[in-house]
C-alpha cells in the first residue's frame, strides 16, 4: 500500500560533493554550498517535506534556500521538524529506532567498503506520518491490521526506511587509496547516525 502522509528528506552525504572530473568552476561552486553543515557534519539537507501531525496533516515543504541557512547550531531543528516532534520536543522512539536500524546498516557498510568513492550521494529518509497521527507515538507501536486468514490482530509493518540513493558520481578508489575507507562518505553517515542516537537517548532519559 502507498503512504498516506509521506515524509521525505534528502540528506546529501560528504564534506566534498564534487567528483574527480569536475571543472575548477564546478568545484568552486560546490565548495560554497551548505558549507557550515558539510564542514561540521559531513552532510547537508537540500530539501525535505513532511505532513505536520500537530496541524492536522498539513503538508510542509522546505527546499534548498532553507537548507543553505542551516548551521551546526540549528541543523537539529530541521530533523525535529521532519520527525514531527511534539510541542515540547518529544519524538517517537519507535520511529527513531526504525530509522537507526537502517542507518546503522549503511554505516557498517561504509566502515568496511574500500572499493568506491561516493560523491554527491544521498541517504533518503522516508516514513508515513499518518501512523504517528492516529494517536501519537503509541500509534507506531500499536498500529495493527486484521489478519484475514485467522481473524487475529497482527502488527502492521511500519513504513519507515533509510536508503542510499544517487550513485551518478561513484568512482573507483584511486590506487593511492587502495585498502582505505571512503572517509568523506563515512563522516557524513557517522554524523547522521550520531544525531539520531542523540535523539533516541534523549527520549530514553525522559522515560
Automatic annotation (TrEMBL):
Please name the top-level EC class of this enzyme: transferase
Q: Name one GO cellular component term.
A: cytoplasm
Catalyzed reactions: 1D-myo-inositol 1,4,5-trisphosphate + 2 ATP = 1D-myo-inositol 1,3,4,5,6-pentakisphosphate + 2 ADP + 2 H(+); 1D-myo-inositol 1,3,4,6-tetrakisphosphate + ATP = 1D-myo-inositol 1,3,4,5,6-pentakisphosphate + ADP + H(+)
Gene3D superfamilies tied to this protein:
Inositol polyphosphate kinase
What's the EC number here?
A: 2.7.-.-
Q: Which domain of life does the UniProt lineage start with?
A: Eukaryota
Any GO BP annotation: inositol phosphate biosynthetic process
Please give the Gene Ontology molecular function terms for this protein.
ATP binding; inositol tetrakisphosphate kinase activity; inositol-1,4,5-trisphosphate 3-kinase activity
- Keywords assigned: ATP-binding, Kinase, Nucleotide-binding, Transferase
SUPFAM superfamilies, A to Z:
SAICAR synthase-like (SSF56104)
Name the family the entry cites.
Belongs to the inositol phosphokinase (IPK) family.
Q: Which PANTHER family match?
A: INOSITOL POLYPHOSPHATE KINASE (PTHR12400), INOSITOL POLYPHOSPHATE MULTIKINASE (PTHR12400:SF51)
Kindly provide the name given to this protein in its UniProt entry.
Answer: Kinase
Identify the species of origin.
Answer: Anopheles coluzzii (African malaria mosquito)
Amino acid at each position: 500500500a502507498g503512504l498516506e502522509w509521506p515524509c521525505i528528506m534528502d540528506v546529501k552525504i560528504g564534506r566534498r560533493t564534487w567528483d574527480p572530473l569536475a571543472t575548477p568552476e564546478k568545484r568552486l561552486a560546490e565548495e560554497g554550498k551548505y558549507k557550515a553543515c558539510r564542514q561540521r557534519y559531513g552532510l547537508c539537507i537540500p530539501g525535505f517535506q513532511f505532513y505536520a501531525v500537530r496541524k492536522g496533516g498539513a503538508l510542509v515543504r522546505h527546499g534548498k534556500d532553507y537548507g543553505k541557512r542551516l548551521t551546526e547550531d540549528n541543523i537539529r531543528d530541521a530533523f525535529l521538524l521532519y520527525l514531527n516532534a511534539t510541542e515540547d520536543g518529544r519524538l517517537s522512539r519507535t520511529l527513531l529506532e526504525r530509522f537507526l536500524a537502517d542507518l546503522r546498516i549503511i554505516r557498517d557498510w561504509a566502515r568496511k567498503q574500500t572499493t568506491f568513492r561516493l560523491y554527491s550521494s544521498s541517504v533518503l529518509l522516508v516514513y508515513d506520518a499518518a501512523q504517528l497521527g492516529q494517536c501519537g507515538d503509541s500509534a507506531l507501536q500499536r498500529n495493527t491490521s486484521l489478519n484475514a486468514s485467522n481473524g487475529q490482530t497482527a502488527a502492521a509493518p511500519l513504513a519507515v526506511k533509510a536508503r542510499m540513493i544517487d550513485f551518478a558520481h561513484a568512482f573507483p578508489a584511486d590506487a593511492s587509496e587502495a585498502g582505505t575507507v571512503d572517509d568523506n562518505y563515512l563522516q557524513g553517515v557517522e554524523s547522521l547516525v550520531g544525531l539520531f542516537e542523540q535523539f533516541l537517548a534523549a527520549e530514553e532519559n525522559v522515560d
